[in-house]
Automatic annotation (TrEMBL):
Full protein name: TruB pseudouridine (psi) synthase family member 2
Species assigned in the record: Amphilophus citrinellus
Superkingdom per UniProt: Eukaryota
Biased composition (Polar residues): 309-324
Source lineage: Eukaryota, Metazoa, Chordata, Craniata, Vertebrata
A single MF term (Gene Ontology): pseudouridine synthase activity
Amino acid sequence: MATPAVRMFRKLEGLFCVYKPSGVHWKLVRDSIETNLLKGLDATPSQPLSHEVRFLAHPSPETGASKRLTVSAASVPVLSKHPLATGPEFQHIRVGVGHRLDAFSSGVLVLAIGNGNKALNDFYRTRVSRDYTLEGEFGTATDNFAHTGRVVERSTYDHITQDKLERVLAMLEGVNQKALLMYSNIDMRSQEAYQMAVEGLLGPEGKSAPILTGLRCIRFQPPNFTLEVQCLNETQKYLRKVVHEIGLELRSTAVCKGVRRTRDGHFTMQDALTHHHWTAGDVMQAIQLYHSTKKSKKPSKAAVKTPALQTSEENITDTQQNEMNEGVAR
């Protein structure tokens, strides 16, 4: 019969997502969650110890010159199966990581436990797009396209308007749409291509160069601006380079101040567990929610952000970000 810890582990098998703070390596996030899950599993009540029958000797008091030995049968616990002798029932859990985020990026990070690692492999092979918000600043260029890099150039940006920025974004989006069709390896005049485009499933076959399926400006306050990006096969370094190239197209320079993933497939910011909820109970609840909704959910399209998603992002303030960074570091 399965122990309480094993029954609990079976409920933990599946996919879930967490919010990875900026400045924290994804390996530290994974290790923190694995430690919390092991603590939760080992804290479950252990099964009562099994008993065995043993014959216990009881020497009788001396009566004259004779000595007698009395034997009685007794049921005693099998101490070799005590948790103090066998150790924790679970000493390692395989926690898989989906599309990774580098140390200076934040946002949705998909994880898997147990049999969920197979679903994670399937998740990798599907043509799901991801959403990001990119914080940029005009007037500066660095050697690594991020604000933490070494400054290599400074320039003016007074001539940049929102209309000029949006024209550059439209041009980049058009170029990437052509690349998407080229990498799709499907006849664009066929009914299959039309159906896949309607369902948002049109995408490259296998690995391809990064493709931006959507790009728009959601905040313009020079020198600062914020972009919303939908993409495939991207890296965070590539997204920072996009901000840099936008600055060059506008006859200026630009540096990326922040990269935040807001959606990975059908996992969104609303589904992401913050650091204070990286416990076995909260993870179990998130996985059960995933199992209950995965049949009804279709692959997410590269769509415009909903107000609920925007509100969820705004709720993560700089103070909360710093608290999460300090909590994970501990």
